[in-house]
Amino acid sequence: MAILTVENLNFRYEEHHVLQDVSFWIKRGEFVTLFGPTGSGKSTLLKMLKREMRPNGKLSGTVYFNGEKFDELPASTTATAIGYMMQNPDEQMVMEKVWQELAFGLENMGVSTEDMQRKIAEVASFFGIQNWLHDSMSDLSGGQKQLVNLAAVLAMEPDILLLDEPTSQLDPIAASEFLSLLEKINRELGMTMLIVEHRLEELLPVCDRVLYMENGSLLYDTTPKSIGNSLLEHPMLDALTTAMRVYYKLGFRDETPITVRDGIDFIRHYQPAVLPTEPMKKKHPPLITVKNLYFRYNRKSDDLLADMTFTVHRGEIFTIVGGNGVGKSSLLKVLAGLHKPYAGKVWFDDVAPGKWKGNIVLLPQNPQALFMYSTVKEELIHAVPVQKLPKEQRESIVSSMMKQLHIEHLSERNPFDLSGGEQQKTALAKLLLHKPDILLLDEPTKGMDVMSKQEVTQLIRTLQKQHITTIIVTHDIEFAAEVSTRVGMLFDQSLIGINHPKTFFTSNRFYTTAASKIARGLFPYAITAEDIVTAVNLNNRRN
Amino acid sequence: MSAFSNFHPILLLVYVTVVVVTMFSSFHPIIVALALIGGILYFFILHGIRTASKDVVYYFFVFLLIAVAYPSYVHNGFTPLFFLNDHAVTLEAVTKGLVLAGAVVATCFWTKSYFEIFTTNKVLAVLTRVSANLGILVSMLWRFIPLFKTKWHEKQMAQRGIGYYKVNSRVEKFRRAFALWRQTLVQTAELVFVKPDVMKARGYGMTKARTQYRVMRFTKRDGILTIGLVLFLLYYIGYFSQHQTQYYPEISEQTLGAGHYVIIGLLMFYPFIYEAKESVKWRYLQSKI
Hints:
The complex is a heterodimer of chains A (543) and B (289). Helices cover 37% and strands 22% of the residues of chain A. With 543 residues, chain A is an alpha/beta fold. Chain A folds into two domains: 2-240, Rossmann fold; 286-375 and 417-538, P-loop containing nucleotide triphosphate hydrolases (Rossmann fold), CATH 3.40.50.300. Chain B is mostly helical. Chain B folds into two domains: 4-118 and 217-288, no CATH class; 131-201, no CATH class. Chain B is built from nine helices and two strands; from the N terminus they run ααββααααααα. Chain B has helices at residues 9-26, 29-73, 91-117, 120-130, 132-161, 170-193, 196-201, 220-243, 258-288; strands spanning 80-84, 87-90. In chain B, strands 1-2 form a two-stranded antiparallel ribbon. In chain B, a hairpin with a 2-residue loop joins β1 (80-84) and β2. Chain B starts with 8 loop residues before the first helix and ends with a helix. The model of chain B has no long low-confidence stretch (mean pLDDT 87). Chains A and B meet through α2, α3, α4, α5 and β15 of A and α5, α6 and α7 of B. Chain A: Pfam families: ABC_tran. Chain A: Keywords: ATP-binding, Cell membrane, Membrane, Nucleotide-binding, Translocase, Transport. Chain A: Residues 4-240, 288-517 form the ABC transporter domain. Chain A: It is found in: Cell membrane.
């Protein structure tokens, strides 16, 4: 039986059609993924299904929940039976302590103290959060906050869970832990779920159905195995898992592999081939020289970086990967001069940072920290190098920058209301207005859909042609494999294995891209889906 | 954690009110001394000898300052001790200065101890009794400061990372810091307070009969002690309103019976005695294991 039925839902905000004739239904116990390019109306659709969150606008169409008309349900049902989770954990949180947050919804429902204690004990044990029960919410990491938020929603025992990009503010490790937890909740408790997400590599193997939206319309409603057939000519094909992309790009249809394991099975039928490695380009002179660098936060803490030595050349795209808390962000801050190393030196063009004439800018992990104004346009006009210029010049510089990053349509929007990927792009635009020589990017692809990621990759390559050097810190190894000229891994206080990405990812067994895992032993140096396709074609030509 | 702090928050509030009101309504040297010593002893229990000693030294100077300053400005009283700039420093003023200094320092110690034991949970328990909404509001308010600190630090870093402060004029630097500060304040306030949708989405305001997860039970013992304390307070307020110690023009000898001092002393020392009893009990339990 359908737990949720949506019939001909239309939503208009001012003159803007956000949703057009959306119809679908969800069965009890189903795990449904809703995806689509940024701005396709996914989040709005989700909000329509939670009455308290509906934005202002003109709405038509009908929603049935458990067979009853949605608008006629009592407030108590909509509040408790439909669980809703937002992108930003800070926006969802209400109370100060973890236990207060868990109890908030139940207290509102008027649950008796004994029942409440049991429910909270249950849910805290299920999520393994009983040890933080008395901690302040503000002391938790982003991943922990989302876990508490999820537990608080589930404590109310909803019939369906709606999740709006719950991992977009999390690092990929916390994000994939969060998603596997959702899978567990679906599998073990039979919880019905509708999730809006960009991270399909983890979701497609576990979800039952896929909804695809574009420009406010629900275009496809199908299974993970067949969504690819509909997206063959579409750039969003690249949002699917690596195994699927390889399969479809090799011209196959119908029985697609989804996981890495399926991908290995599928690719095994091909003859081995070795991709030619690119010839080493002539190197520019070193731009950044780091010599015997030591850094720690204060006298009593341990060294975060120790005896670190490396050079980055002009025009390189140098990527640093590595686990959580190994000091990747701190390294960027040291390079930007925001933290001082206690021993060792950083040289730019062989001069000390104080004497260096160039410009270095840093994109922080949370791009919101850069925003100070209420529209994207104002934000860019007030960028320091621009604000002193005459008005016309200012306008033209800003609008050409917005065009370059494809954010013109956002110019009047509030930067804080944008999606994660749009915020990253706005922040990048602000950085580029500083005309940097060195661009330091801390997790630039956080919360981005695949199309935005490709845009950012293109942008960084364009900047490279203008001899701008980029240093990226990221957990997103697929992105690192795609964009870098060299990759290094930060581990145990130093940078290790610095190499060309093809060599770096091929020699790694665990910490590598899905494509490299699939191609392992068969196509050395293939580290992206495209590489595998090239390798396969190379072989065919030879035969 | 202190055993005394496990009493019901309402009882704790009544207790400290009784201590301070008794002290100030009597203004009797011995009673003030008892309150001061009781306060310091409990403070030692909470913080340990090392940490507490530093504070005691600091407050000793506060005590001296008040005790010296008072008689050098107030010259009432009959019995001059010596003359300072042609003004008599009287025995009465010196005595009152000492008592006043003692009362102020005693209040400081009790307040410091109470800041320690009166945790947010207790504040909430009391406020929620008054009004559930007030409790929620205060809990939200409590989120504000740490969140503001985090955001401010994060924004400072981010803006420095793009050269926001790279201007020559100091005034301009300050103006920019202020703009950032104001923006952080607004944004944090929005995150913390502007969430009617979110709260409604989780059922807030749905039913009038909001329940409580954590109920601090007001036990029979709490009740008896509270009634005892209130009776005590009424009796002595009644007594001291008739017989407050007079310092001018002459010190009026207010001699209470020794029994009264013992009772008041027991009251002032109660947290200390209770802690001591509990720790002896604990040690005794442990030695058996």
